[in-house]
């Protein structure tokens, strides 16, 4: 048995045989001369275009116009004159059409990849995909996957067209060993609700994996290859329970989040990429409570530009419409390091140079982000929150920078919401203790219980050896939560919880009794949390039991 950790594309469980998908790779080889090879290219391109037309029709029927449009884009790429010219140029070196197409695809993909705009960057994979499709016609090699039984697909990455050609009922799960969670194929996978992982550490996708039995645990983001019988039995049970429960929970869609005694609260979603907003909406989330914007920086090889960030923020805000979207500003440092930030090595990184501290030292980075956020505020109900706040001077700095961002946009004549709400995370004991003062300086609070617990207990949240001492129900933490909630409400501002404790079943009655306005959790937990809340009667809850 071997197990591997990855990132999650879509939740769920899968048990079954692996089937390997490997992309074509052409070695440099001599051709029949530029003219003959060009004719071969033209013919293969015609076949590609015809195949793309068919895929367009099939996707239109399965998923609708928006998703089918991808194949119109692919067709335009295949017929693009710049692409054709690049193939011609490559053929001048007397190489085969296969090699010329692959090289031309790679050259154009690199141009897309170097663009600032997130949408254009993503097109790099599309160009590669189109080129490989033409190559497969040239080679007359059918590289496409054919699933004879329901299987778990494992690949470095998968062209979206491959996914759309398959019968969804035959796909138990997908492992994109090298793919990211924002790629097109990942987005389609989420839309199809297929359990899937990406960026899996330490796995080599080789043909030997074909036919191996595996368990895909997309709840814990783990792939287990060749599990023992006991594990298979346990996971079959888990999968069944998960699926039965999912079905049952559908009854809570479209309902308010309300306790037995009529106390209302809101369930928001935590997301790490703009594409996850679809997940939040599908699970009937009432807002976005935490968009961890640092993942835009982590996914990038250089500082993301204002335009690039704007596209991500706008996508979420527009999709959420009137529902609130809270985007957290850059929270790096500690366990989230980014090479191009060139952060110093530190003895105690969790207590070191991170989040707002970095933004203060490098204000241009922060200003770019705030400007992108204000621009996105024009498109829906956006609020911004700042992590790791400990002092009044930090809040003052944030307001000054926000004013600069507004001035900048005014000068450029761009529309934005002057009144966009600015809140802070309460995730340090300092912020909780000072919450009476801070509540008068910001528009809302959101409690980050992961860090609040770590800093209150002085226990490193990522040190596995200290796990048993990490009592997240410690009264010190709960008292700080209560204090912050009371102070928020005294000042007339709302307060939410966006750390992992937000879905802690034992603490839910406490949170509801003290009047937490919003709980923000992974989209997959929305409906189960709503169900749990519907069973709670807060009239019988004794707050002292938690904090006394
Ligand atoms: C937290 O600290 O509780 C939180 C939500 O932020 P993160 O886990 O990203 O530090
Ligand atoms: Mg935190």
The overall number of domains is 3
Low-pLDDT residue intervals, each spanning 5 or more residues: none
What's the tally of helices?
Answer: 21
Structural class: alpha/beta
Tell me the distance between the termini.
Answer: 47 Å
Whole-number mean pLDDT = 92
- Counting copies of identical and different chains, the oligomeric state is single chain
Query: Strand sequence of the main sheet, in spatial order?
Result: 1-8-7-3-4-5-6-2
Strand proportion, as a percent range, falls in 5-15%
Distinct ligand kinds = phosphoenolpyruvate, magnesium ion
What would CATH call the homologous superfamily of the largest domain?
Phosphoenolpyruvate-binding domains
What overall geometry do the principal axes of the alpha carbons give? Answer: globular
Question: Can you walk me through this structure?
Answer:
The chain has 548 residues and is α/β, with parallel strands linked by helices. The chain has 3 domains: 2-23 and 144-233, Phosphohistidine domain (Glucose Oxidase, domain 1, 3-Layer(bba) Sandwich), CATH 3.50.30.10; 34-139, Enzyme I, Chain A, domain 2; 257-423 and 498-509 and 516-547, TIM Barrel (Alpha-Beta Barrel), CATH 3.20.20. It is built from 21 helices and 16 strands. The strands form 2 sheets. An 8-stranded mixed β-sheet has the order 1-8-7-3-4-5-6-2. Strands 9-10-11-12-13-14-15-16 form an 8-stranded parallel beta barrel, surrounded by 5 helices. Strand 5, helix 7 and strand 6 (196-198) form a beta-alpha-beta unit. Helix 1 packs across helix 5 (118-139) and helix 11 packs parallel to helix 13. The protein binds phosphoenolpyruvate and magnesium ion (MG). Phosphoenolpyruvate (PEP) is lined by residues 290, 292, 331, 427, 448-451, 498-499. Magnesium ion (MG) binds at residues 387, 427, 448, 450-451.
């Amino acid at each position: 048995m071997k197990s591997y950790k990855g990132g999650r594309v879509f939740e769920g469980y899968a048990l079954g045989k692996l089937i390997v998908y490997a992309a074509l790779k052409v070695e440099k080889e001599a051709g029949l001369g530029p003219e003959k090879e060009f004719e071969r290219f033209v013919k293969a391109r015609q076949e590609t275009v015809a195949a793309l037309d068919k895929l367009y029709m099939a996707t239109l029927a399965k998923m609708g116009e928006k998703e089918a449009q991808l194949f119109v884009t692919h067709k335009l790429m295949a017929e693009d004159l710049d692409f054709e010219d690049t193939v011609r140029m490559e053929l001048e070196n007397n190489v085969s059409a296969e090699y010329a197409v692959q090289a031309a695809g790679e050259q154009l993909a690199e141009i897309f990849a170097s663009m600032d705009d997130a949408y254009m960057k993503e097109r790099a994979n599309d160009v590669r995909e189109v080129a490989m499709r033409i190559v497969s016609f040239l080679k007359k090699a059918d590289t496409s996957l054919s699933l004879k039984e329901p299987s778990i697909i494992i690949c470095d990455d998968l062209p979206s067209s491959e996914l759309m050609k398959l019968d969804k009922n035959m796909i138990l799960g997908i492992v994109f060993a090298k793919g990211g969670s924002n790629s097109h194929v990942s987005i389609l996978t989420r839309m199809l609700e297929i359990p899937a992982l990406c960026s899996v550490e330490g796995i080599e996708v080789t043909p030997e994996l074909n036919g191996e039995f595996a368990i895909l645990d997309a709840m814990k983001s783990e792939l287990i290859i060749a599990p023992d019988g006991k594990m298979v039995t346990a996971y079959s049970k888990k999968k069944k329970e998960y699926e039965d429960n999912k079905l049952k929970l559908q009854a809570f869609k479209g309902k308010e989040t309300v306790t037995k005694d009529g106390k209302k609260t809101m369930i928001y979603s935590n997301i790490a990429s703009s594409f996850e907003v679809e997940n939040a909406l599908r699970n009937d989330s009432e807002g976005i409570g935490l968009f961890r914007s640092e993942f835009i920086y982590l996914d990038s090889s250089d500082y993301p530009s204002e335009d690039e960030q704007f596209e991500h923020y706008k996508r979420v805000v527009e999709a959420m419409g009137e529902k609130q979207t809270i985007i957290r500003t850059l929270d790096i440092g500690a366990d989230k390091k980014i090479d191009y930030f060139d952060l110093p090595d530190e003895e105690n990184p969790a207590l070191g140079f991170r989040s707002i501290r970095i933004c203060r030292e490098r204000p241009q980075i922060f200003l770019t982000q705030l400007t992108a956020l204000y621009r996105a505020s024009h498109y829906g109900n956006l609020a911004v929150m700042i992590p790791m706040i400990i002092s009044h001077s930090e809040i003052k700095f944030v307001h000054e920078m926000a004013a600069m961002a507004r001035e900048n946009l005014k000068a450029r004549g761009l529309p934005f919401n002057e009144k966009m709400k600015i809140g802070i995370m309460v995730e340090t004991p300092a912020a909780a203790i000072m919450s009476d003062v801070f509540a008068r300086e910001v528009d809302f609070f959101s409690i980050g219980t992961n860090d609040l617990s770590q800093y209150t207990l002085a226990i490193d949240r990522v040190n596995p050896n200290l796990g048993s001492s990490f009592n997240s129900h410690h009264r010190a933490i709960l008292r700080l939560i209560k204090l912050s909630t009371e102070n928020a409400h005294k000042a007339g501002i709302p307060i939410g919880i966006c750390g992992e404790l937000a879905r802690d079943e034992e603490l839910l009655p406490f949170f509801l009794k003290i009047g937490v306005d919003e709980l923000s959790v992974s989209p997959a937990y929305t409906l189960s949390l709503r169900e749990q809340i519907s069973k709670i009667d807060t009239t019988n809850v004794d707050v002292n039991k938690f904090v006394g």
